[in-house]
Amino acid sequence: MEKEAGPETAGVRLDDPWDDVAVSDRYDQDGTTGGVDGLDASGAAGPDPLPSAADIYLEVHRSAAFREVRRRYRRFVAPAALAFLLWYLAYVVAATTAPGLMARPVAGAVNVAMVAGLGQFLTTFLLTWAYARHARLRRDRAALDLRWDTQEMTRGLGRPLTRGLGR
After folding, report:
1. Which range among 5-19, 65-79, 88-102, 108-122 shows the weakest confidence by mean pLDDT?
2. How far apart are CA 74 and CA 80, in angstroms?
3. Is 134 exposed, middle or buried (0-12, 13-18, 19+ CB in 10 A)?
4. Which of 14, 25, 77, 138 is the most exposed place for a label (fewest CB within 10 A)?
């Protein structure tokens, strides 16, 4: 880092918003989460220990809201990717097996192969626009709510996962 940014920036530390525990305090020798977080002044375990990050992420992973976000993602991506792949393969197969069809003129020097090739670019841009729109309208709000709940739970402010999808 010193070579690229100079010696004064070598001490810069980027904090991970998902990890508030120092690395040395993360695990005890038996593999459980450690540190002094769950102990009171006498050294005994407190009345309400905070759940570990793994427990929190498992709870989020099992939640209905998380399953719904994943379902919405898959319902768009799988058919769109399959349709685009089939369209691309049809273009490649037609170009190799039917050169006469692909060489057929459409308008002047423009032939079927050129129109189909430009159609590939157009399809790519349309699919990208449709994906971004779908994400913005159907998944982003729910995913942001899940992330917010997860961060609150890992910081110990947390209540159980209660938010629903979207607003």
Report:
1. 5-19
2. 10
3. middle
4. 14
The pLDDT value given to residue 120: 94
The per-residue pLDDT for 78 is: 95
Give pLDDT, residue 147: 87
Say how far apart CA 22 and CA 18 lie, in whole Å.
Answer: 12
* CA distance linking residue 39 with residue 34, whole number of Å: 10
The 3-class SS string of the chain reads: CHHHHCHHHCCCCCCCCCCCCCHHHCECCCCCECCCCCECCCCCECCCCCCCHHHHHHHHHHCHHHHHHHHHHHHHHHHHHHHHHHHHHHHHHHHHHCHHHHCCEEECCEEHHHHHHHHHHHHHHHHHHHHHHHHHHHHHHHHHHHHHHHHHHHCCCCCCCCCCCCC
User: How many whole angstroms from its chain centre is CA 66?
Assistant: 12
Take residue 119 and report the two structure tokens written for it.
């159609």
Q: Which residue has the tokens 């992973």?
A: 61
Please give the structure tokens belonging to residue 114.
């050129």
